[in-house]
Amino acid sequence: MSKVSRQLMLMTAIERGFRTAIYQEKNRYIRQSALDWTRNRTLSEASFEAHTQNMQDIFNQYYAKTIQRFTVEISQQMESEKKATLWEHLLMQWISNYGGSKAKETATTTRKDINRVLNIAFESELPADKVIRSILSARGISAWRSATIARTETSAAASHASYGTAKSIEADTGVRRKKAWNPVEDDRTRESHIAMGSYPAIGLDEYFIVGGESMLRPNDQGASAENVINCRCVLTYESAYAF
Question: Cα–Cα–Cα angle for 103, 107, 112, nearest 5°?
Answer without folding.
Answer: 145
